[in-house]
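Example record

The entry below shows one chain as it appears in the dataset: sequence first, then structure tokens.
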Amino acid sequence: MNNDPFSVIESPPPQFTPAEAVRICREFYGMIVDAAALVSERDQNFCLRGERGQTHILKIANALEDPLATEFQICALQHIAAQAASGIAVPEVMPALDGASQVILDKAGASHVARVVSWLPGAPLDESELAPATCKELGGWLARLDRMLAGFSHAGENQVLLWDMKRALELRRLLPHVGEPATRTLLSDTLDDFESRALPAFDSLRWQVIHNDANPDNVLAGPGGRIAGIIDFGDMLRSPLVVEVAVAAAYLRVLEGNPLALITELLAGYHAVNPLTRGEVDVLHELIKTRLATTVLILAWRASIRGAQDAYLKAAAAAEGSALSFLERLAEIPSTNARPIYSQVCASVERRP
């Protein structure tokens, strides 16, 4: 197992061509499709369109990705699918011709684990303005998802991942890649706050498998802006439950007016379905800021190792341009002020009939 969380991103993603993706689908799945490459951080994905208009996604893991982590993601999706009455739409794992849930591909002397999953209809939330009602509904969706995953366990649940909040302090080595001194100080202070105020509480919090990446690009909306599905389980792992809420909250960025306006809606929706404990609420503010710092640091580092022409970096920089600005806004709110606000939101939910 590779224990270096930086190595997978440093490693080039798989380099299969669309023509090879078409051949893979025909040979292993009996599917006649056209394939178009999609942007991904460390793996390689293709959108597959069949003769009758059906759509699937081919996901090819990085050669340095632990195969156990891919198996973990597959098993989690199957675990969710088995709970048919959940009302939570997630991708379905498609079996290969031999019934296997994954296949092994070799290219340039490297081995890659690949699988095909169904495509979910809907538009990513990042394509529309986030409304308070949508954020509250998202909180409820994540709460139901976490309730379904609460009893799920797998040997790959502790995958080595740079986006793992438990390993946030390792990101200090990326600080030299941030050129602006004031920004570097803010990021360092954020990690210091995480170390002193949040990390010591981790052992006392509830832990389970979580999605860990409910950013607006991974949440789909249907007609009327209603939540229609959650995709991309590649960052899933075992972590404190409240990290799920913190990660999603870090993307609900209000740059004018009350910076907590959408975060509190998400929290209310989540707490109504899967109530958080006082200890979890107490560390939420630090965890949200830590996720934002993680985003800024990883993008700065990636720019230095991959260069400006990196397709993922281009897409991420456009989507994450507000991360630093939002972190600056949240840093102006002391934790002693944020905690009572979050606690009041939860108390208000509990008082409702």
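Notes for this example: The mean pLDDT is 92. The CA atoms of residues 72 and 260 lie 34 Å apart.
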